[in-house]
């Protein structure tokens, strides 16, 4: 396991979860000893610094987040890196202000939050726009101090500055891809920060918007692996989301034209919780494909994580690779695609693994994105 994974993996340590007689789910926190902040060795510190340097090379300048555009943090470099590496162990030390008893519906959760006017003013977006199974699975995060502080920051930004994506699209990933259906997770970093690009799905842009360079390389790799895939003339990946692909950025908002402007504000801690929910599947109801009692936990046989670049690899460092498949490579950006992304065969490998786990129909229908559209033929140059 990579040196930096030691502290990251603590976020994914199992939480004791039990169902009450009425079906409600309760959880117990780990012991105080397990909550103590971990320390990193000198080797781990060097690995994290090297990872951050590599991540800079993965950024793009054509409408995509660029590390060079981010504001310089005045804190000592060592402390920043340690803070980022340790963030996935924090949630267990910041208990929710809601009681342990979990709500079983959107309306029930909304009623409980409404008991605190200062909460409903900050959490109405989550309650009103998030997919219900995600909302219920993540409910303990919403009233933790880090998330309330994050929402106060984002809300103030939205009042005084232009923020992407539009508020109603921040959680579109949860509506297009229900938790119970997730089979593949593709991890991005920042939302696109130019006008009209971001709409809540990592790497995706709305139809009519110029296709970003990274997505062009993803299309190229997809066609090389799956010749039947028709390369679409648009960059809207909604169809993939509907087929079980969670397209998740680790920061869910960004200030217009300022890449990284909402990083280190709390989104990475929340999206780490999203990944934990995916791996533990804390969602109500059985899997749509389950046929036996042993399969009643949605996605219990594991999911595929596509970790492209140093940042995504760090996010996945604590995921159990015995239960889940973690596919790592260079980022698809023009600066690094030729260094390991192109030719990685991740889309094909994902389906082969899913078919072993879930049967012949268990893979992702990647071809659905370009099906029935006037896409590019196999002999056309990918240029947009």
Automatic annotation (TrEMBL):
Residues 1-75 are annotated as: Disordered. Its main location: mitochondrion. It comes from Kwoniella pini CBS 10737. The gene is UNG1. It comes from the Eukaryota. This is Uracil-DNA glycosylase. Coiled coil: none annotated. Its EC number is 3.2.2.27. It holds the Pfam family UDG. Transmembrane segments: none annotated. The lineage of its organism: Eukaryota, Fungi, Dikarya, Basidiomycota, Agaricomycotina. PANTHER family: URACIL-DNA GLYCOSYLASE.
